């Protein structure tokens, strides 16, 4: 089951989808969640590239995308996350 099938989410402060069996990419629309502080997706069954739109989540402090099948370079936009204290990409 992909994340795209879930209803529109607005004003998220945190999202924990760890330990799930999702299929597919992390939706680029997550970049619209400008209030999100924590995004935990460890071992969530994700694949593909990390969306550059995550750089729009300026309040993001913790981003954990470990133990997924993600590939490609880290988006340059992540360098603009000035409040980030933890980035994990195993």
Automatic annotation (TrEMBL):
<dbReference type="InterPro" id="IPR001611">
    <property type="entry name" value="Leu-rich_rpt"/>
</dbReference>
<keyword id="KW-0677">Repeat</keyword>
<dbReference type="InterPro" id="IPR032675">
    <property type="entry name" value="LRR_dom_sf"/>
</dbReference>
<protein>
    <submittedName>
        <fullName>Uncharacterized protein</fullName>
    </submittedName>
</protein>
<dbReference type="Pfam" id="PF00560">
    <property type="entry name" value="LRR_1"/>
</dbReference>
<dbReference type="InterPro" id="IPR052592">
    <property type="entry name" value="LRR-RLK"/>
</dbReference>
<keyword id="KW-0433">Leucine-rich repeat</keyword>
């Amino acid at each position: 089951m992909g994340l795209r099938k879930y209803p529109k989410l607005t004003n998220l402060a945190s999202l924990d989808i760890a330990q799930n069996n999702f299929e597919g990419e992390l939706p680029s629309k997550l970049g619209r969640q400008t209030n999100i502080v924590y995004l935990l997706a460890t071992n969530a069954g994700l694949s593909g590239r990390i969306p550059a739109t995550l750089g729009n989540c300026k309040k993001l402090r913790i981003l954990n995308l470990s133990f997924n099948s993600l590939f490609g370079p880290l988006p340059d936009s992540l360098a603009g996350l000035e409040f980030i204290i933890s980035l994990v990409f195993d």
